[in-house]
Design a protein that fits this description.
The protein has helices at residues 3-19, 42-54, 64-72, 80-84, 336-341; strands spanning 113-127, 136-150, 155-170, 175-193, 196-217, 220-245, 248-263, 266-267, 269-272, 279-281, 284-299, 301-303, 306-320, 326-331, 344-347, 354-366, 370-380, 385-397. It is mainly β.
Length: 398
């Protein structure tokens, strides 16, 4: 199996672990009224549910503290969207990718061959504010390392582990979120011929989520925080074709990436200014399927120290499955039995189905079976999200 194909597998696998770091990014979701078209804004829904409950003749006992605080704020929280909070549940999937792919050419591996590799990822993601969800800007940083073995001249199997951190601040100072992801994945690459390769990966991530929601009401600014955990199963397949043209290499690929994410339900707690404007969220299950196809051009430049391979890749991506969702939620102040009786619907934005990725990078094949790679990718054409990432790595074969 050539170095170009081998390194494409390594970079794709480590990049995929990084790309799902911010998939969930769960924060304090906004509220909307069930059955309305379009859905109510967070502030409208918040006032509607409290007005309907707090004006009843027999208010639920567990709801009384919330109604008292609501009345002290003149029956209408100032900046109700802030009370409703941030909603980032709709931005799952391929549009959250934070890394691209790379490739390089070089000498032929002789089976059996072991290699160890590692990479560092840094990037930035921004989301636009909509009626249903608050915008944010955040940075992602992480690292991955792994080992693989050439089982034959056609088959490589490996494992990769990674840890990634995403920290973001929401627009207008309405809150912040932190997401930490620990990932593990297995991958296989099959070299069908000199010009065609298929690779697949499957893995599992564990997720820790921390969120802060600033609540601006007439009586002052208050704060809610939440901590929860989650997990996600990831899998994907990539088919790659490449054709050498003297020192040039032209390639094309088709990929499918799948994510099934689960987040544990949680209640908010008050951290700044005692408040009963705290929300409760149920367990959630989110699925995403992303299809992508790309073309790339690389050039093998012979150097005194080895081979340098600059490259350019352009890709079209389409997100499926990740439609707008309605999540049944309630108030944390209520008892468990009352939460079933007094609930409201959280509505998310649907994912932007179509967007693009552009990658510019280079690989270096050095003496002693060392390889280095650098890849910069930007995602564009998405009406909700924009992002970029830089992936730097090293690979050593034995």
């Amino acid at each position: 199996m050539d170095v170009q194909t081998h390194d494409k597998t390594i970079i794709r696998t480590t990049a995929t672990l990084a790309q799902w770091t911010t998939v969930i990014g769960l924060c304090c979701v906004a509220m909307s009224a069930y059955g309305q078209t379009p859905p109510a804004t967070p502030g409208e829904a918040f006032n509607e549910i409290l007005n309907s409950q707090c004006t009843q003749a027999n208010v639920l006992p567990s709801l009384v503290p919330l109604c008292v605080e609501y009345a002290s704020d003149d029956g209408r929280p100032d900046a109700g969207a802030d009370v409703g909070g941030q909603n980032n549940l709709g931005t799952l999937g391929g549009q959250n990718q934070t890394a691209g792919r790379a490739d390089k050419s070089g000498p032929i591996f002789q089976a059996p061959t072991w290699s160890v590799f590692g990479s560092v990822n840094i990037g930035n993601r921004q989301r636009s504010t909509t009626r249903l969800e608050d915008g944010y800007e955040g940075d992602v940083i992480g690292a991955a390392m792994g080992v693989d073995k050439s089982i034959s001249d056609k088959l490589v199997a490996g494992i990769v582990l990674g840890q990634f951190q995403f920290d973001a601040d929401f627009d207008l100072g309405v809150g912040s979120m932190e997401t930490e992801t620990r990932s593990a994945a297995l991958f296989l690459t099959y070299n069908h011929s000199d010009t065609s390769t298929a690779s697949l990966y499957f893995g599992r991530d564990s997720i820790d989520l921390e969120n802060v929601r600033n609540i601006n009401v007439v009586s002052g600014t208050k704060q809610a925080s939440s901590n929860t955990e989650g997990s996600q199963n990831v899998a994907g397949i990539n088919v790659y074709f490449h054709w050498p043209l003297d020192a040039w290499v032209v390639g094309a690929d088709l990929s499918i990436d799948y994510v099934d994410a689960k987040i544990d339900g949680f209640d908010e707690t008050s951290t700044l200014g005692n408040t009963t404007y705290l929300l409760s969220y149920p367990d959630q299950d989110i699925e995403s399927l992303t299809l992508s196809t790309g073309i790339e051009v690389a050039y093998n430049a012979s150097m005194s120290w080895g081979v340098l391979v600059p490259r350019l890749r352009l890709a079209y991506m389409r997100e499926t499955e990740n439609e707008a969702r309605e999540v049944k939620s309630s108030f944390a102040v209520l008892t468990d039995s009352d939460k079933e009786a007094v609930s409201f619907i959280v509505t998310t934005d649907a994912a932007d189905k179509n967007f693009f990725a552009a990658s510019l990078g280079a690989s270096a094949v050095l003496t002693g079976d060392w390889q280095l790679f650098l890849d910069a990718t930007t995602f564009t054409g998405n009406s909700l999200l924009s992002s970029w990432v830089i992936n730097v790595g090293i690979n050593k074969s034995f």
